Amino acid sequence: MRVAGLLVRHEARVLVSLVLWAARRTHGTSGRLAFGYARGQGAMMAGFAFVCVVETVAMSVLLRDFPTAHAVLLFLDVYGVVVVVGLHASSVVRPHVLDPGRGTLRIRRYAHVDLCVPLERIASARRELRLTHERADGELDVEVGSRTTITLELTEPVTHVSFLGRRRRVRVVRFHADDADGLVRALGPARV
Q1: pLDDT tens digit string along 87-110?
Q2: What is the pTM of this model?
Q3: Over the stretch 106-121, which tens digit does the pLDDT of each residue have?
Q4: CA nearest to 110, candidates 24, 16, 2
Q5: How far apart are CA 81 and CA 84, in angstroms?
Q6: Cα 10 to Cα 137: distance, rounded to the nearest angstrom
Q7: Contacts of 188 by beta carbon, 8 Å cutoff, 6+ apart
Q8: Which residue, among 83, 61, 60, 81, has the nearest Cα to 72 in the 3D structure?
């Protein structure tokens, strides 16, 4: 039952992201520095949505003589397209957020990852392009398009809560930002 609740909450976040995207608003960025990460994935997400639309049309043609199956699959296919577009919308409206006033860096990806890192725990922040990532204990890779561009090393671990609620302590966080240099520069004075 707990997993079902987490899935429903995730779907609600994705749908709210669609509304925010249509209204050209962002989530949790008011008065703070926002750093996007969605720029390089727009074409891929559009291609994925296009493939889903083609599949929807093909299934409609194949199932035209089976009205019940056609209706069920049409609903699921259209909802699938909405989710794909919603995932892209969530990456646009939920950027990384640097809040020097609260002393936090909020690292996000879609509606899946939302990690709050206290600035005083950041030992070092550097621009580092990585295209391959091996899972390691105490490390979190928040990849976008299979790459990360910033590496944070922490003085103390922070707790990352996964999509399905698993907790994990991490001391190294790698993530992608479109303006990685700008984010690393902004972290310098914010950590003082």
Answers
A1: 999 999 999 999 988 889 999 988
A2: 0.84
A3: 999 887 888 999 999 9
A4: 16
A5: 5
A6: 26
A7: 125
A8: 60
Closest CA to 71 of 60, 79, 80, 81: 60
User: What tokens appear for 16 in the block?
Assistant: 């709210």
Q: Calculate the alpha carbon distances from 158 to 50, 136, 140 in Å.
A: 39, 15, 10
- 27-31 own/partner pairs: CB under 8 Å, 24+ apart: 27/93, 27/94, 28/94, 28/97, 28/106, 29/95, 29/97, 31/101
Distance from C-alpha of 169 to C-alpha of 166, rounded to nearest angstrom? 10
Q: What phi, psi does 127 have (nearest 5°)?
A: -80, 125
| CA–CA dist 3, 49 (Å, integer) | 26
Sheet holding 113-118, edge to edge: 33-35, 96-99, 104-109, 113-118
- Return the structure tokens found at 156: 């103390």
Given a contact cutoff of 8 angstroms between Cβ atoms, the answer to whether 4 and 101 are in contact is: no
DSSP string, 103-165: TEEEEEETTTEEEEEEGGGEEEEEEEEES-----TTEEEE-BTTBEEEEEEEEEEEEEE-TTS
